């Protein structure tokens, strides 16, 4: 199996060193670079052909959000996934990171084994969200004066709207299939089509779309 090529981006050298030691303990991962700024992260993602960037949000100069946006917008980096790290799960910037193209987020005090599992999940093309914190974050985002007006995803069919609602509530494909009486493969197909129609990079962005469109309201995550 080809190891997952991981790039570490954090402005604190000790934090990068700690994560590097952890990642290198996994036989299916390898650290291909370390960046102290967002600009370095973007450049190294290109030069080292990383599969996944473990990205801190707050960095000098180009921060983690803008670095994520540049990576997500670069066609040459289409296969690169970004997993955002934050000190607090109530950090309002996480929503901005998800909108920029991040495939998920974790708090920095996540257990080592869970962090490694998260890297595997995101590198495989899935999104990784923590439903509780995500619901709180988006609730704050929608209540803020700067929140953009919501717009319904009119391009979706009724079934697709149902699926999007369940995705935004934090359900995986198997749970969506059970809730709607579908096969897991059909549920997965619906999710893929929804992402294509809405131009969403992954499920993380579908969660934001679900809230912004009003299909899901704060407090219904996991309902």
Automatic annotation (TrEMBL):
GO BP annotations, alphabetical order: phosphorelay signal transduction system; regulation of DNA-templated transcription
A Pfam family of this chain: GerE
Domain Response regulatory: residue ranges: 5-123
Keyword check for DNA-binding: yes
Annotated ranges, domain HTH luxR-type: 149-214
Keywords carried by this UniProt record: DNA-binding, Phosphoprotein, Transcription, Transcription regulation
PANTHER family for the chain: TRANSCRIPTIONAL REGULATORY PROTEIN NARL-RELATED (PTHR43214:SF24), TWO-COMPONENT RESPONSE REGULATOR (PTHR43214)
Descriptive protein name: Two-component system response regulator
């Amino acid at each position: 199996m080809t190891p997952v090529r991981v790039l570490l981006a954090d402005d604190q050298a000790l934090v990068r060193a700690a994560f590097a030691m952890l990642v290198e303990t996994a036989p299916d991962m390898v650290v291909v670079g370390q960046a102290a700024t967002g600009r370095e992260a973007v450049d190294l993602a290109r030069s080292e052909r990383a599969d996944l960037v473990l990205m801190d949000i707050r960095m000098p100069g180009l921060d983690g959000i803008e670095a994520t946006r540049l990576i997500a917008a670069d066609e040459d980096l289409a296969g690169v996934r970004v997993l955002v790290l934050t000190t607090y799960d109530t950090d309002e910037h996480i929503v901005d990171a998800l909108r920029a193209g991040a495939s998920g987020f974790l708090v920095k005090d996540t257990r080592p084994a869970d962090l490694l599992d998260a890297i595997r999940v995101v590198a495989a093309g899935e999104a990784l969200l923590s439903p509780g914190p995500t619901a709180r974050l988006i609730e704050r985002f929608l209540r803020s004066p700067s929140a953009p007006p919501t717009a319904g995803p009119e391009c979706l069919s009724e079934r697709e709207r149902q699926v999007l609602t369940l995705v935004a509530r934090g359900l995986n494909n198997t749970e969506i299939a059970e809730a709607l009486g579908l096969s897991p493969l059909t549920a997965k197909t619906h999710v893929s089509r929804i992402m294509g129609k809405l131009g969403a990079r992954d499920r993380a962005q579908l969660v934001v779309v679900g809230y912004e469109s009003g299909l899901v309201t704060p407090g219904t995550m996991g309902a």
